[in-house]
Amino acid sequence: MSDLNLTTLTPWLEAHVPGHTGPIEAQKITGGQSNPTYRLSTPQGPLILRRKPPGVLLKSAHAVDREFRVQKALADSDVPVPKMHALCEDDAVIGSAFYVMEAIEGRTFDSPWLPGLTPNERSTMIDSMNRVLTAIHEVDLEATGLTDYGPTGNYYARQLDRWTKQYHATQTEDLPDMEALITWLGENMPPDDGQRRLVHGDYRLDNLIFAPDGPRVIAVLDWELSTIGHPYADLAAVIMQWSMPATEQGRGLAGIDRAALGLWSDDHFIDTYCQRRNLPGIDRFEFYLGFCYFRMAAILQGVKKRALDGNAADPERGLQLGAYVPQFARQGLEATTR
Known about the structure:
Blueprint: H1 6-16, E1 25-29, E2 37-42, E3 45-51, H2 64-73, E4 84-88, E5 98-102, H3 119-137, H4 141-144, H5 155-170, H6 176-187, E6 197-199, E7 208-210, E8 217-220, E9 227-229, H7 232-242, H8 258-261, H9 266-276, H10 285-309, H11 315-322, H12 325-335
Antiparallel strand pairs: 1-2, 2-3, 3-5, 4-5, 6-9, 7-8
């Protein structure tokens, strides 16, 4: 079951997605906390629909039109993405903007320790994850028409300002660690080194689809936070996620014997990334890591607020994730001394 209005969606789909007709069945995909996602079943095969959530939203949040644009632009690049079928910006159809894309059949993993696989399979899959991250950061902005996909100027200054405002707009309790982290980031920002690249904004294992029978990444999902910015934010986000608890909610590798399982160390992932991009190394990585903790804390605070307000895609899970805000703030401060 789903909350989609299939009576109005069906004629729109038939008019805008060639080769697909009704009757349509829809199933909401649970687990996500950004734009609600649905699997559509049509007589010709499955499709995926992503929409803006209902309710009052923060300015610039849940921009499905941007998700659609960037994935459509990447269709012929080295970055694997689903085929984009159609975008609808008419709220009258189902109550909010949405887009329809190809349903990619493959394997997804919520747990970064990749249970059930061999050490060699795990290592090869992390290598593919690293390669695709490099491909994102090497996208030719002119060839893909994405030169205007984000503003110019210092990416971190822009992001710090944006997420600080959104954090304070959704704040539900006082967190001194978060305020201290915001202050530290503002006072320790590296000078702009001129790297202006496509960034995913939420690059992690559970936003990737792997081939059904191999270690290759065949699709990168959830481009809601993508923009033109600084690539080290994506890289540091991977390292940040691995530092979290190895639980269903934490989805990290804390306490895991990575070497025994064939999982890469932080340094191996960073070094391989630098080799692929012909970089000598990364100075002041602690800033980029602290920034990622800050941004994730701000994002999860918004998830928590939407859950409390009844607007979250999955309210129960939204509250569970929101409980991690103090931990991200604390670990962000700790990362600044890494």
